[in-house]
Write a structure and sequence with these properties.
This protein is of the alpha/beta class and 248 residues long. 43% of the residues lie in helices and 14% in strands. Helix 1 links the parallel strand 1 and strand 2. The two termini are 27 Å apart. The structure holds NADP nicotinamide-adenine-dinucleotide phosphate.
């Protein structure tokens, strides 16, 4: 199957590492151009190249959507879609999570994503595609990840609403629900338990495929959702979790 990505241009936020970077790598391998963002120059520096424009930009900054769209237009003169990813929120129970943690996470994880989706959605032509990186917490709560459990389901419904609003313009909007993919974020979550190996083994036992996903396995699904190959998929939440989610 041809993903028809040659010379298409995508914004990938939170793309210096992890799921964003893995998706950008697949997009570029398939012939696309990428505007990649992250918060620090050091982590982005290695990504720069013929097919990658790297922009230091925080998803929480209201100026970020305008700057990323402008970067795509300035370098390649077109924009076909975006993967909206960001660093995960802090861990914690409902009882231990403070107002300041909720407020900071709302700005970067929730409002930042909504704002990016809104501004990029308005800039996309017919055939454009937006994919939000969400979490299995859209459908089932994760232990000790209160903020994720609180914010992701709401974002999923915003994405669904955007699919309604942008569908008539021929723009698709979907969400990706990673389960446990082996990125730095998941390494940190495992380490935060005090016994990373035990945490990883216990988590792997809850996954029917018996292992963590590889970032590239996520990137290939994300690239498909962004590409014209998925031209009739919109308003969907797609788990990439090795069968982990107990909800359909
Ligand atoms: N990996 C999984 O299995 C999994 C499962 C469920 C949900 N998720 C969610 O998926 C998202 C991506 O996860 P990941 O595993 O790729 O995380 P990661 O390995 O920590 O990578 C996050 C990326 O986002 C960038 N970033 C962080 N905060 C940012 C901000 N405010 N603005 C712009 N860029 C920012 C980071 O670069 P800088 O630090 O340089 O900015 C980094 O490139 C997270 O929201 C996570 O909660 C992941």
């Amino acid at each position: 199957m041809d993903l028809d990505l040659t010379d298409r241009v995508y914004i990938v936020t939170g793309g210096a590492r992890g799921l964003g970077r893995a998706t950008a790598d697949v997009l570029v391998a398939e012939g696309a151009k990428v505007v990649l963002s992250g918060r620090t120059e050091e982590t982005l520096a290695t990504a720069r190249g013929d097919s990658v424009e790297a922009v230091v930009a925080d998803n929480a900054d209201p100026e970020t959507p305008r700057r990323l769209i402008a970067a795509a237009q300035a370098r390649w003169g077109r924009l076909d879609g975006a993967l909206i990813s960001v660093g995960g929120p802090p861990t914690g129970t409902v009882a231990s999570t403070t107002d300041d943690q909720w407020t900071a996470a709302f700005q970067s994880v929730f409002l930042g994503a909504v704002r990016l989706g809104r501004e990029i959605g308005a800039a996309l032509p017919t055939g454009g595609s937006i994919a939000f990186v969400l979490s299995s917490s859209v459908r089932a709560p994760l232990p000790n990840l209160t903020i994720s459990n609180g914010l992701r389901p709401g974002l999923a419904m915003v994405a669904k609403t955007m699919a309604d609003e942008l569908g008539p313009a021929g723009v698709r909007v979907n969400g990706l629900l990673p389960g446990r993919i082996g990125t730095e974020r998941v390494e940190e979550l495992d380490a935060s338990t005090g016994d990373a190996d035990a945490a990883r083994e216990a988590a792997a036992r809850t996954i029917p495929l018996g292992r963590y996903g590889d970032p590239d396995e996520f990137g290939r699904v994300a690239a498909f959702l962004l590409s014209p190959a998925s031209s009739f998929v919109s308003g969907s939440m797609l788990p990439v979790d090795g069968g982990m989610l107990r909800a359909l």
